[in-house]
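mind reviewing both lines:
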Amino acid sequence: MTTIYLIRHGQAEGNLYRRCHSWHNGLLTLKGREQLKALEKRFEDVHFDAVYSSDLYRAMSTAGAIYRPRGLALRVDPALREIGAGVWEDVPWGQLLHDHRDSLAAFLDCRPDWQVEGSETFQGVRQRMDRAIRRIAAAHPGQTVAVASHGCAIKCGLSVWLGLSLENFGQLPLSNNTGVAKLEVENGQVKVLYYNDDSHLDSASPLPKASTAYGIPGMERNALRFRPLPLPRERETYLAARRDGWQASHGTMDGFDGERFLAVAERNSAQNEACVLLALLGDTPVGVLQMDWEEDAQDQAGRVPFFYMAPEFRSKGLGVQLLGHAVCTYRAMGRQVLRLRCAPENDRAKKFYTSHGFYKVGEEPGGIGHLDTMEKYIGLEL
């Protein structure tokens, strides 16, 4: 008999940034890496003979909690990947909700007929996960193996081993981040002892048990989309955000130069309309993200000249999606660092940035004296 612990990866950028990351290669978040400490502790007294992972960074990083302390090699298997989402890859969930609501509902409900251009099917993933686990078990008779995979892929596999039909497997819950399923495989039969067990996070307070609210109602409450903010046509929208952002940052309007800010934004927008974006929750504007694709390019850095959330939408877990959009945009361009300025007196903004991996690297002229230059490393690494 082979024992397999099938583990979903820790919290990843797609979970936090509310983006469709299936085969898209993102990283674990800071919180995800904290979850791995609890996962490592959970298994510290368990003997493992082998450790497998999908070939995506978030799963390989999660597998590190098992193989690194034991000095084992990581065995990478692409068959353990998440369901491929085709043209949906790296698209914000809020954008999919707005543009493809019915198809998104079919995906979230795990309807058998769901498929988009370039994607896999649920049936295809059920088959490849079942084959992968049986193949791993056959290679390790009588041994104990850890396997790091992904939420929907694990759900597809479990539905087969629990005897659920393709039409009914949607009733299974999606595994929480670092949730564990324990399997026993003998004579070609897979027995599920338990699944979605993340009890190891209980002892790691204040780590959350993972609530990403991927259903349609949840997405309506917390998934943003983005559209270009055309300038100068919507200059008043931009300037209103700039004025409020200045007041919130500095506590005064002294030194505010709206026309200068607008000129920079128009120059950025001329680079590409995707450089100046309005963030929306449904059809309600909630923020502005401005990127400068040329400034700091020589440093392999992506510059964010303006990052703004409307007052009524702050502290609701939405601002990180603007950050995530900038991360994914610049990473796709090969940039290694995300760079922005923050008023030293703006404690709220500094707390937000540092909580998401930014650190101060210097100072620049601006604001009402100087601004702190802050950076976040965004290169892909385990």
Observations:
- The two ends are 32 Å apart (CA to CA).
